[in-house]
Amino acid sequence: MILGLYNYWIVVVLMMIGFYIVIAHGNLIKKIIGLTIFQTSVFIFYISMAKVEGGTAPILAEGITQYSNPLPHVLILTAIVVGIATTALGLALAVRIKEAYGSIEEEEIQEKDNLDC
Amino acid sequence: MKDLFAVIMLAGIYSLLSASFFVAMDAVDVAFTEASVGAGISTLLMLVAITMTGRSEDPVRHKPILALVVVVITGSLLIYGTLDMPYFGSVDAPVHQHVAPQYINDSMQKVGMPNIVTSVLASYRGFDTFGEVVVIFTAGIGVLALLSVARRPGDIAEIDSLNKTMHEEFLILRIVAKMLIPFILLFALYVQFHGDFGPGGGFQAGVIFAAAIILYTMLFGMSTARRVINQSVIQLFAAIGVLVYGSVGVISLLEGKHFLDYSALSADPVAGQHIGILLIELGVGITVASVMIIIFFNFAGRENSQQSQENNES
Amino acid sequence: MDITSALFLLIGSFLCLSGGVGILRFPDFYTRMHAAGVTDTLATAMILIGLMLQSPDALVVIKLIIILLMTLFISPTASHALASAAIHNNLKPVLENKKDNE
Questions:
Q1: Are B23 and B43 in contact (CB under 8 A)?
Q2: Which residue of A has its CA nearest to B77?
Q3: Quick one: CATH architecture of A2-52+66-116?
Q4: Ranges of each domain in chain C
Q5: What value of ipTM does the predicted structure carry?
Q6: What pLDDT score was predicted for residue C94?
Q7: Residues A116, A101 contacting (CB under 8 angstroms)
Q8: How many CA atoms lie within 13 A of C98 on its CB side?
Q9: Tens of pLDDT along C62-77?
Q10: Which of A12, A16, A40 sits opposite B38 (nearest CB)?
Q11: Fewer beta carbons within 10 angstroms: which end of chain B, N or C?
Q12: What is the pTM of this model?
């Protein structure tokens, strides 16, 4: 029973690694990289759910009876592109924060904010 | 790890590995997109960002014990939650039951193209794809609003002279790039129009097209690239892509059918589906390519202006 | 047919492995890049030729030939770009320690 579920556990491990990077590191760029690791683990989750044993890629061809499920593929295609859009925006924000505060470490930014208040 | 450059390279390798994993899971369209987007554009944008924000990370000052505890608790709760899920690859999982067999069986008669993923993306779920194109467009506008720099004429002459002196150094790279870039652009067009029959479609094609332009920009300098690709024309193209997509939907409305109902586009419904899918994939490809080029130009332009500011001050 | 294709694939995998060992064990950046270049160019060529002999379909063979040509163009250029970037940033290669002449 346990061995049939190993793909979900791999996904959970990757997700937790990404989660840990986001909450435990102070550098903004590292947080963004942790976020992309998290996103990729979610993609692996969906795609591994779509796989049917003995099926092939969902492109209609002669002589193939069993196809893998195409619906999660479509959703993940959208998700990948939206993911890179948000990553680009996050990196642009990080660049502007660096110019405004002089550093991208979370603690130094908070200190500067507290000094200004 | 303190060196962000190494971390970004490892993240790129991770994306490439997950793309090969997707191929093993029979998800060829997704693997294509993940390889081009994740291992290509994403790594590139992060590298450009760390040239401006600093290459190494300060050492952590607090102990991450609380973070570790939270992560372990969340992880164990999630693993407990997956004990009910269907096994890997089982044929009678609920996800394969309701809508998916209908897509697989009816796609050939209703839409008439072999690639089921494209037919679901562009025809059955066309509205979601419209939202996705608008999201990409918004990201492009956001980067424009955050990072665009007004160019002064003095900068351009200075950068030009720098380019001439660097020509010797980059000679081999420039010649090989000049030979390869037409092929890359041709491949992008092939992927765009072949998306009906094999893996491909608008997104992958847009990203590959933008990658070719970015390669040209990296090797020949920003000022030459700006003369080749005019920034305002590219911004216009990004908007045109979204408008093409929206107008296909509005035309269907004007004919009296639902929004984005392609059977309104021609007498024969299957031919209407083909025309509709062609037009919206074109809109998607144009918008994605233009937005990626806009994002890269703004990042690189910001870095150029930072460098020239430092040169003027020192 | 199968035996020659298996031979090419085996040679290609061996070159890949030796390239990987080389990247880990060589002492200097430039020598490591030689190892990486071997992996990129020669090992890829061997594996692709082995795959070409495997497939019965002519279209697949032509596509593999085009991939091989592209790789032969691109990977030496990439190695050249890395090496010239390193020289430009003053990364000096480690030369043999000259023994004192007594």
A1: no
A2: A12
A3: Orthogonal Bundle (1.10)
A4: 2-88
A5: 0.88
A6: 67
A7: no
A8: 3
A9: 888 888 888 888 888 8
A10: A40
A11: C
A12: 0.85
